[in-house]
Prior knowledge:
By secondary structure, the protein is of the alpha+beta class. It is built from 18 helices and 24 strands. It folds into three domains: 25-142, CATH 3.30.1330.10; 146-336, Phosphoribosyl-aminoimidazole Synthetase, Chain A, domain 2 (Alpha-Beta Complex); 379-644, Rossmann fold.
Amino acid sequence: MAFEIEDDLISELRNWFDNLDVDFFRVGSATAIGEQPIKGLLDPAAGARLSVAESLTNLMFACSTDLKDVKCSGNWMWPAKQEGEGAALLDACVAMCNFMKDIGIAIDGGKDSLSMAARVNSEVVKAPGTLVISSYVGCSDIRLTVTPDLKCPDGKGVLIYLPMRSSSTSSNIPWRLGGSALAQCFKQLGNDVPDVEPYSVVCTFNVIQSLIKDSKLASGHDISDGGLITCLLEMAFGGNCGLIIDIPLNSEEKPLNVLFAEEVGAVIEVKQTDLDFVVEYLNCEKVPFSILGKSIAHDLEPPQIFISIHGTLVLESSMTELRDMWEETSFVLERRQASLQCVRQEQTGLKHRIAPPYSVNFDPDVKVNVPKPLAEAPKIAIIREEGSNGDREMAAAFSLAGFEAWDINMVDLMDKKVSLSAFRGVAFVGGFSYADVCGSAKGWAATARFNSIVQAELYAFWARPDTFSFGVCNGCQLMALLGWVAPDTTETKKCSQGLLLDHNTSGRYESRFSSIQVQSSPALMLKGMEGTIFGMWVSHGEGRMVFKRPDILHQIETCNLAAIKYVDDQGIPTEAYPLNPNGSPSGIAGICSPDGRHLALMPHPERCVWTWQCPWVPESYGRRGAQKQFSPWIKLFQNAYAWCCQ
Ligand SMILES: NC(=O)CC[C@H](N)C(=O)O
């Protein structure tokens, strides 16, 4: 009986799911944070309003279902028992409630820590009363998200300032410096603190949403900590571009205030050809705005920044020089976290960065040709161990290509619950098997080697000519330890380890989206992809390939077994950090067996088979409109499927 109910329920759910008019690969959710504790020191009510506003201006560049669908978490950290602080907390709370009510959103959860004070000797040290707003909302098309890096469509974009005020002229902006980053630099708090009205937040949010849906925004960024100048420069730094800006204000305004006041607002970049449409729309919606100038694409010359206020030049510099200053604080931290040599390399290299040289000479949206389709889908064992992760992405990627993916734990093999005899492929997934104790994948390899049942099962699979194996990251480390790739062939025993994945030269865990070039190799999963350059997720602490003897590396290179490599912005294999995140010789990022059946990669193609999973793709690849649905890495999985169909 219970079964019948369950079956009914499942088929009912399946029907409902099938009939839903939603594209599940496009919908998602967006979340953002806002907090303004320093401004709250001057005016707790304004601080609370600014925290809510910042959270929304951070959220508004994702395509949300509706402003009224936004939900918030409120986290309060306050020294509430100290004199005057209870009243400040109350002011902040009342202001936040009223502001949210006016906008039409609400808090649905949160947490508080109301004893944020400590006695140090005879002194009581208080944390500034802080409200952190985390907002979240359904996202109707995750691909439409607008990012802050300038795109310079057709070589230059037009930059528009949205002051988020109800008055129609930007000359009425009070440009208050209280609680700003600039004030902090002068060890001051200031007096006059910015504030914001709910109506202008609603208007701007909705206008941005509409422009996103019409694909009229090339980039966009909110104005918050650091003010208008910081917003503009951050956009230029991210896009590797120059700027020619003239802020159209009357000459009485003090440049320092205009540039550094943290009045709520936003800057958007639009295509020259969309300008008339956007201007008309903003006028029609009565949203105040001013056109600031242009973004300039990175050319052969280093990009320049020119900023004027009402025709008077206030800043002229090369973008890279300003970016070096802006990055310096991060590098100070990095010098404490990573090898000094690597940090130095990254810092000097930054000046010379241009856009990654992505190159794809096939259409990833066109499926790989299958010789003759199989009656039954080939089976792939997605093998995981205690501490593995990424098994779902791996299963999804192989399923997308037509495989029947099975979730197999090492214990299933040990207990003989499954045999690999029915499988055409195995995929060893990434992660932290046995918490990387004694070195990455060492515990996993021990299970595979020293449990006789598992050892026999894996060996039988490896020896069958109709099988293939794929290892990613932790799985790659395992395949190296098992000698499935780069074995020491001078040993009499088959599969003797000849390669070890050692700690990255930076001395730390690297998490990046690195440019990867497919080499010409016998790897069946990389067939027809030679020369492809595209970004791939890197996420490891132990990715540096150390070969037992130089002749093993030599053989890998001469037999074309280095299947993929990290490349620089010129598309040349590199050992330079951070383009090569771990210091592997000749930029080697993955290795295959001479017969091409076994492939072990340190980066994660399974985490970026869809374009939306890539944090950056060139405009020509297209994130929206006529975009490619898939990244080139889908082809690895389709190639494996096609190989099984031979
Ligand atoms: N993502 C991974 O698989 C990480 C592998 C391993 N734990 C490392 O840090 O190197």
